[in-house]
Amino acid sequence: MAQFNVIKALLAQAEADKAKALTSFELLTTKAVGIGDHSTGDYFKNAEEALGQLSKAEEQIEVLKKYFPDDQPGEILKG
Q: How many domains, in total, are found in the chain?
């Protein structure tokens, strides 16, 4: 990653969002506490939200690493 504070901050946020989504999936699949009021509707809603958060975070990480690489900072945005 290029050494720009804003890029570092965006990457850190995306990685945190990814960790949150994976934690949600862990709770939903292994811990009963992860199921809101124990209704099927809430369970699937929570799973869909976690999937959306994970997908978005993965995409953001990929984009940041593609356009702001460490090894070629002079190539930024030539994508």
A: 1
